[in-house]
Amino acid sequence: MGSESVKVVVRCRPLNDREKALSCKMVLSMNLQRCQCFIEKPGAVDEPPKQFTFDGTYYIDQTTEQMYNEIAYPLVEGVTEGYNGTIFAYGQTGSGKSFTMQGVSEPATQKGVIPRAFEHIFESIQCAENTKFLVRASYLEIYNEEIRDLLGSDAKQRLELKEHPERGVYVRDLSMHTVHSVGECERIIEKGWRNRAVGYTLMNKDSSRSHSIFTIHLEICSTDSSDQDHLRAGKLNLVDLAGSERQSKTGATGERLREATKINLSLSALGNVISALVDGRSKYIPYRDSKLTRLLQDSLGGNTRTLMIACLSPADNNYEESLSTLRYANRAKSIQNRPRINEDPKDALLREYQEEIKKLRALLTGQLSTADLSTLLAGQFSESSPAVPSRPQSTPTEERKEKIKEEYEERLAKLQAEYNAEQESKAKLQEDIAALRSSYESKLSSLEKAKVSRGSSVPKNVGASCTSQVALEELCMSTDPMCHSTVEETSQTKLSEKDPDRAGLLESSDATAPGPLDQKHVLERLQQLEQEVVGGEQARNKELQQRQRQRKKLADQRKAQLVHALSENSEESENVLLNVYNSIQEEVHAKNQMLVKVQGKLKAAKLEIRDLQAEFEVERNDYLATIRRLEKEGQLLHSLLERMVPLVRRDCNYSNLDRLKKDAVWDEDSATWRLPDVMVQKTTLPSGGV
């Protein structure tokens, strides 16, 4: 299994109105051909600009469309083939992360990465041949280290993060929504966006106060030439991170300050994970330090193709933040992932759908001719009732059976009404229905035995119909626990409404509905399942296929240009030594130029070392100040406890602090201590003898 590095691109936005009002100057510049970014330190005229090289650079006049087609297109295309992919935007607050991921509808060239990914995925699905897709979506946010479902009934409810040996890290009770088109995806994300936490700061009036992750899950079933199905699964994470903040610039206070603290802590944890992965010597990767890093665990060093978009502000008053972002992105380039196609996933819902569809088709083809089946699948099923056979002469046995049937239906309807009114559990309802059905079948069985003993004959067609209905119910029960009662009630109700006379033909159980109605129920379920999956609707659209090929070709050309540019940067020094010169003067001139470049790089490296040492010293002093502050707080709390312990009752378990410390347990998921319950042990003395 090969590895590939995380792809990193940088994007610079224009100066905004606030920066123009402050008369800010631009300190960022880019070489688009060589994918290089330069940043100049304000006021340091003698210092050369710091230089960084990435997988792509996009300046103020570049569009989101160009960036997506060149860099993001191959990653999203890989998701439709069964790979996992992640695209996330990083940068300080107000640097254009949400603009890059969400975008704007006008102009069309600035439509964001997320809506473009929707269009790309469904375009590939529609062009696929002999392949079906099940597409589901989820949308969550991490607000103040709490995970929320933006598409759930309660967007403020806190969800739990769990880990499974096969599924990996997942969010319990996160809602999944099946989608069939770009429009449905857009409606879902608009709903989630309205529920997302945003707030006003001095640097951004609509600042994201949480990290959000929109995930598209694909299950892919392709059929080969030998009519064998092959299952794959892909997942695309579209991540919009909240921006790092400085309180002095954002003016955050109160709740906004608390949000900013949590945001900075999670981004710091993300930086620590990147540093540990790049270091190579670290045996421990601190994924568990935040919810964000745990959710992105597979995207950083795991089974995922990852693209990081570093968003920058060109203003000189954001120099330190922009430089920090560039260093952050430069480290991320060195992360090695191990992506692979997810073949034959064990928990694929599409597998269950395909198996059920095959069973339903087999059931239909066993009762219908090929022509009738194709007519039904085309939606041309006639609603008119089939020819009604002549009704046999009514007998006392038939009347008793009809009475039992009516009693059964009445009691069943009553149970259903009670369930709807009192919201009883599914398990209890199923037990009641099963018991009622057992009673009903036993009564009918006794009647049949009595009828057989009197020499009565049972129509053959009823037996065949019974077999068909039992097969249908077994199939339905395997996929839906409530389907048992639903099919049973629906088939009998429709039969009695359309033709009350035929209701008297029911034999040994309620599963003896006439064959054509069985076919209709099977067909309805079959059509419902086939509507869940999509794929191949535009397989013969030559124009759409040509456009897709052109986009793939453009992405391949851009990749080749990038490889060539990077190779030029690395081979530049070697060419000077290997070239053949016409004269000594020409060789001296070329090598002098090379010497000047090397001296410039050496000077830049020394300045970088100086800056890093200065930053390290600042961080070190900050850590020391934090340690001293925590020590003071710890001493204060310890002194308070020593004064308060003598005041606690001796028969209370909280009077012994040492025992409490031993009984306390650290909860990794909630990042809190679980303390024992308060208990008071009362001692009762025996009554004295008289």
UniProtKB/TrEMBL annotation:
This protein's GO CC annotations: microtubule
Signal peptide as annotated in the record: none
Taxonomic superkingdom: Eukaryota
Domain Kinesin motor as annotated: residue spans: 5-335
InterPro entries reported in the protein's UniProt record: Kinesin-like_fam, Kinesin_motor_CS, Kinesin_motor_dom, Kinesin_motor_dom_sf, P-loop_NTPase
Chain positions recorded as ATP binding sites: G91, Q92, T93, G94, S95, G96, K97, S98
Biological processes per GO annotation: microtubule-based movement
Comp. bias (Basic and acidic residues): 495-504
Residue stretches of biased makeup (Polar residues): 381-396
Region (Disordered) residue spans: 381-404, 487-516, 537-556
Keywords noted in UniProt: ATP-binding, Coiled coil, Cytoplasm, Cytoskeleton, Microtubule, Motor protein, Nucleotide-binding
Ranges in a coiled coil: 595-633
Record-level Gene Ontology MF annotations: ATP binding; microtubule binding; microtubule motor activity
Subcellular location: Cytoplasm, Cytoskeleton
Family designation: Belongs to the TRAFAC class myosin-kinesin ATPase superfamily. Kinesin family.
Subunit structure: Homodimer. Interacts with APBA1 (via PDZ domain); the interaction is direct and is required for association of KIF17 with the cargo that is to be transported. Interacts with IFT B complex components IFT52 and IFT57. Interacts with IFT70B. Interacts with PIWIL1. Interacts with TBATA.
Function, in words: Dendrite-specific motor protein which, in association with the Apba1-containing complex (LIN-10-LIN-2-LIN-7 complex), transports vesicles containing N-methyl-D-aspartate (NMDA) receptor subunit NR2B along microtubules.
Protein name stated in the entry: Kinesin-like protein
Gene source species: Pundamilia nyererei
Lineage of the organism: Eukaryota, Metazoa, Chordata, Craniata, Vertebrata
